[in-house]
Amino acid sequence: MPKKGLIERLDSGVVIGDGGFVFALEKRGYVKAGPWTPEATVENPEAVRQLHREFLRAGSDVMQTFTFYASDDKLQNRGNEAQKKYTGAMINQQACEIAREVANEGDALVAGGISQTPTYLNGLGKEAVQKEFEKQLKVFVDNKVDFMIAEYFEHVEEIVWAVESIKQKCPGMPIAANMCIGPEGDMHGVSAGECAVRMAKAGADVIGINCHFDPDTVLAALRLMKEALTKAGFKKHLMAQPLGFKTPDASKQGFIDLPEFPFGLEPRILTRWDCHRYAREAYDLGVRYIGACCGFEPYHVRAIAEELQKERGCLPTGSEKHGQWGDGLRQHTKPWVRARARRDYWENLKPASGRPYCASMSKPDEWGVTQGDAMLKQQAQKTTDEDLQKLYKK
Amino acid sequence: MPKKGLIERLDSGVVIGDGGFVFALEKRGYVKAGPWTPEATVENPEAVRQLHREFLRAGSDVMQTFTFYASDDKLQNRGNEAQKKYTGAMINQQACEIAREVANEGDALVAGGISQTPTYLNGLGKEAVQKEFEKQLKVFVDNKVDFMIAEYFEHVEEIVWAVESIKQKCPGMPIAANMCIGPEGDMHGVSAGECAVRMAKAGADVIGINCHFDPDTVLAALRLMKEALTKAGFKKHLMAQPLGFKTPDASKQGFIDLPEFPFGLEPRILTRWDCHRYAREAYDLGVRYIGACCGFEPYHVRAIAEELQKERGCLPTGSEKHGQWGDGLRQHTKPWVRARARRDYWENLKPASGRPYCASMSKPDEWGVTQGDAMLKQQAQKTTDEDLQKLYKK
Amino acid sequence: MPKKGLIERLDSGVVIGDGGFVFALEKRGYVKAGPWTPEATVENPEAVRQLHREFLRAGSDVMQTFTFYASDDKLQNRGNEAQKKYTGAMINQQACEIAREVANEGDALVAGGISQTPTYLNGLGKEAVQKEFEKQLKVFVDNKVDFMIAEYFEHVEEIVWAVESIKQKCPGMPIAANMCIGPEGDMHGVSAGECAVRMAKAGADVIGINCHFDPDTVLAALRLMKEALTKAGFKKHLMAQPLGFKTPDASKQGFIDLPEFPFGLEPRILTRWDCHRYAREAYDLGVRYIGACCGFEPYHVRAIAEELQKERGCLPTGSEKHGQWGDGLRQHTKPWVRARARRDYWENLKPASGRPYCASMSKPDEWGVTQGDAMLKQQAQKTTDEDLQKLYKK
Amino acid sequence: MPKKGLIERLDSGVVIGDGGFVFALEKRGYVKAGPWTPEATVENPEAVRQLHREFLRAGSDVMQTFTFYASDDKLQNRGNEAQKKYTGAMINQQACEIAREVANEGDALVAGGISQTPTYLNGLGKEAVQKEFEKQLKVFVDNKVDFMIAEYFEHVEEIVWAVESIKQKCPGMPIAANMCIGPEGDMHGVSAGECAVRMAKAGADVIGINCHFDPDTVLAALRLMKEALTKAGFKKHLMAQPLGFKTPDASKQGFIDLPEFPFGLEPRILTRWDCHRYAREAYDLGVRYIGACCGFEPYHVRAIAEELQKERGCLPTGSEKHGQWGDGLRQHTKPWVRARARRDYWENLKPASGRPYCASMSKPDEWGVTQGDAMLKQQAQKTTDEDLQKLYKK
């Protein structure tokens, strides 16, 4: 029996995405922070497979191929060693096989993905950018992924090109398009609502936001997108794949600007209860593709699935090891911990950081540069000490 | 060529432990919070194996068998379903095989482990407690683990019994003994220093502290132990396996008492830089077994290994995906993130929590009950609603 | 030589207001929190006079008569005992005499003041409300105050009535009109900009905001007012009299809604350096009447005057006891305190609260009731225990 | 009828001190931060008198002459201009007259005071130091103050000399001796307990601690003093005059070391409810002279008196303007504020700072220099720019 497709699922219920591969695998030792490229699919396929399995077990209905930033121009950016050994196609081929293998252990779909390119930042124009996309898309088509996600785009201009490429090269595949923007809109000053409308016009079937902001901020921006889409007469499914980090203090460019990015974000990690709230609020807003991005670990996704138990009609497999709302604590040795085995305790807890010398909020670095600024030009060479010193002094 | 043994390694250098299995596997969906028992070795061996590999890759010199709380009395405590399917021996056998398999992929040792028992809390006496230990020890002897760890004991009386059992049943095996106490000492009021001396007298070769407190607190307590051991004329190696959570506000019973335990601890998670500091301070105090407990993920252990690169003469395998002190950020797309590719940035960062409605510190639940109190008696039945309501009202 | 009038001063420079009498005198023991009425002018005139002198010395160009909430309907509200002994006219007469006495010790102007009334909350209509105003205005006219301030109005409808009354009863007196609103506008949903325009239309010469919010929020709202006034073709002077408390977390009704109001606001008190920044930002926005409200003590006003030294051409008398930007610390005994005698130290300091068990921000009580709701009807009787219990349960 | 003396009062009840003159008058514009000398008694006697009256009204049983740091060597320290105009004797004479005048408006006692000297810091020896004391004591004897307080001493050696001087020059006067130390003891490393014993041996009748630390820390140190006194066989009254600022993070030298001292301490200011708790805990520890130091304003002292209403048999005059435990809020206009008119609301409130970019705690400057170090030598000249720059660089 063939699996139900993405749109069919969204029309009739809710689809849960999977979590953040690059951050989770960085913590497990398989991805390098900085380049953030997915050569682990070739180098350590068992680690990638294991993480897929954990998300499947947590309730994910989609296995996203681990192909983030696998464009050839990115693989050779700023001294990344990955490109000496692998092409993007090699990485993506492995990613597709792993994702499909695990998807078939359950009822999950496989989604291919493309994201923003150094070529765009370097101002090389539409043709050059789409060429990068197309090299990647070929692998997804060959592997017959169930649908495509264009995600992590900061400029609406580039995601429109991406959607167009998918539309052309992957006929018949549903397209989900996600920008990594907040309520302030894209880096060139296009409003969040207008971004949504342009993605819809380009042909995206599912429209949303991923990465860069916490669930609260992502939903605030999605609300603007929803209003603009409605006003423009579009009826599209909405998609949210927020960070697993609290970012009330982030500025336009999201958590990248926060001084804690990427090695001091721990105090911002969501609790599972934050994820319950996120799932409910997303659902109430009408979002039907409720997913996750950097910072989301399997237990965070499980919390989404547990919150939506009624809507989905089931609990995820992983819940066999999780008492709902703390219920497992009934089995704890200490009586005062057993006393926490109740929903209102965890819903109302305001967790302390154990860091009295740290503030709650940070002032973001706001350099305000974006595509078009010379500072954002990319290069194949690794940043030198001299370059670094110039940057420190800014 | 046979591997060098534990004591030999400690005498000539530093040994890095592995991290916290129950917490890491709970987040991955394989361990249930509440009972915290390790039946995953049977149910999902590939998940346990993968975590071992990540710690090996991160620099761990020891693979601890995932046998925490696998005593038969614990497996059947308070409605734990594990005991319906498995005996402790079954779980431990699998744990030994997995640990040995991964240890042999590198140069790591395998350590068996026993911990405190419900039998002790129920006041059933030395013989009954030791019988629980001995059932577990048999598996470790049969599997020829390299050494034994008695860990997570809140009462020195019980750990002394444990060390005695190991001494008798595992002849020739080095013994490491770790209590989960802080500077205030054990739950019966025995000082930290006196606890250390009693462990030494009972025959432990390596003496230390695991779990319950953050590195700062564990090292403060180890300092007291070191002084007491020296004063009593013992020369023993010291061992630290602290939490990967900040707990400046914990009271005598550690993070168990904090209101965030176990489902709201995220804001307290250590950064990798916290682990660098921990490794250095532990080393400077003379601790030579520098390990980790609940909350430590592979990248935390890698940070210990990176801090001790000079002392160990090498970097761990996992560092191939980690630029030292943020160096990988030289390869980041954004110039202001590249500007963070330097040690002093990360050493001085005070990370914000993104939680302005949460305080820094919590008031612990201090019920002050310990072995001997009726409230701590354990039972096979799961806590009922009625029992729970009585507890809430306290 | 007659003193220069308000408008003349505003046209040619900057006017500094005085600080918050009710809060300062509450802390000194002369005003009761709850009713907040100014009977101290009769009961303890020397205390009122001393506070006036301190503000004069701090650089205030205006002595506001201490007549806040001195309408007869307020004096007898909810069991206030003041009305048994004094009429509003008696209190105000004394207030005028004291203010004039101190004003003449320097070059300050005297401003009379009226504020919102229980009569309005009780929905008794324009005529009844204006009758309350007119009883007060008579005293100000008799005493020839230099100008009038209508301040602390939450509903634009009522302040328009107030401005009209002043216009009619105090011919020739300049009128300053201040609402206690933030960027969200008045309690009936009128926008901040529209409020400003209506005040201008009613005849106010100086338009602004007092109380309820911190300087940042007040200036954000004033920016909206300025834009609306410009758009409507009005050229009016702007006035700011914000709180001396940080209120980033206040909702529409300001600090009244914060759980700390009024007896736990201490951690929110501005530093003198916060006041420097306020003065500069207000000036840069074009505000020329830069004053203060609840929470501002004399040293806060002095900081305004010191920041505007160049613009005003002088330092206030009180600066003889204050080294600029910490300069007085050069005379401190301890060398590390002397090291703080510099501007950048104090400008960049992020002061800690010493309260690790308290959060940074509070969730406001948002009952959302306003004029027109039965809950806001006032009465002469003190709230009974029974009434209170009903309120707690809400 | 003559007033009851200090010891008689302490034997039969509790004595409430007055609050912090230098800090309160700095905020009012009459004292210069840095030198902190009390020339306001001559320059602005009405301001000093008013503050005395407020404390009397708040419940203070003692009017301390405003003579802090009025030794001649201090008046001419580091460019203080006070010494060009006044001698210490002139300042103290005025201080005595004002204090007596206000004390006689109630039933308060007058206490003279001496404190630590630059002469001691300069290492000029016992004779030179006592000569400074004696010049001051003469005025107190001439004015027949009711008792003497030696306070604000960081070195027990110097306070012993002070007590000896008082004993010799002020025959018959009770002597209270207060060091400004915490549980870590004096700056030369003498323990808190030993300090207490030496003060007792020197002849002090009342022994305690003032300034430098918050109530919690002061009471912790007083507990050590009490134990040591008992052990040494002394029966002395205990005295507490803590700061009105929270200082959990201060190091040995107290709030002076905190980076917020003295111009950023606002977020640390105690609430009135903190003072209730302080009064109760001090009383329960057996402290009978319960006073206050820097940061305490009249309403803080009133809170002490209100907490001890039962013990003292009366409320202070100032409570006519203060409903107990928030009771005055029954008269507030807004219903949600009326709902706060109850004890448990205020006792349990954890007040937010409104400063999400600030941490809870600070790292103190710990230069660790003390009497004997060249850096602490004092001089008549003001610190030069060059000197300052050397200090910054430390």
What does this structure look like?
The structure is a homotetramer of 394-residue chains. The first copy, chain A, contains 18 helices and eight strands. Chain A has an eight-stranded parallel sheet with strand order 1-8-7-6-5-4-3-2. Chain A is globular and about 65 Å long. The N and C termini of chain A lie far apart (60 Å). Chain A has 394 residues and is an alpha/beta fold. Helix content of chain A is 42%, strand content 9%. Chain A has two domains: 7-315 and 364-393, Alpha-Beta Barrel (TIM Barrel); 325-351, no CATH class. In chain A, helix 9 (126-142) crosses helix 10 (156-169) and helix 12 runs parallel beside helix 13 (272-285). Chains A and B meet through helix 2, helix 4, helix 14, helix 16 and helix 18 of A and helix 2, helix 4, helix 14, helix 16 and helix 18 of B.
The structural domain count of chain A equals 2
Show unreliable segments of chain A.
none
Alpha-beta content class of chain A: alpha/beta
- CATH homologous superfamily annotation of the largest domain in chain A: Homocysteine-binding-like domain
Order of helices and strands of chain A: HEHHHEHHHEHHEHEHEHEHEHHHHH
CATH topology of the largest domain in chain A: TIM Barrel
- Please give the count of helices of chain A: 18
Distance between the termini of chain A: 60 Å
Query: Whole-number average pLDDT of chain A?
Result: 96
The CATH class designation of the largest domain in chain A is Alpha Beta
Largest interface: A-B, 102 and 102 residues
Shape of chain A: globular
Specify the helix fraction band of chain A: 40-55%
Q: Could you describe the largest sheet of chain A, including whether it forms a barrel?
A: 8 strands, parallel
Strand order of the largest sheet of chain A: 1-8-7-6-5-4-3-2
CATH architectural type of the largest domain in chain A: Alpha-Beta Barrel
Radius of gyration of chain A (Å): 20 Å
User: Can you count the beta strands of chain A?
Assistant: 8
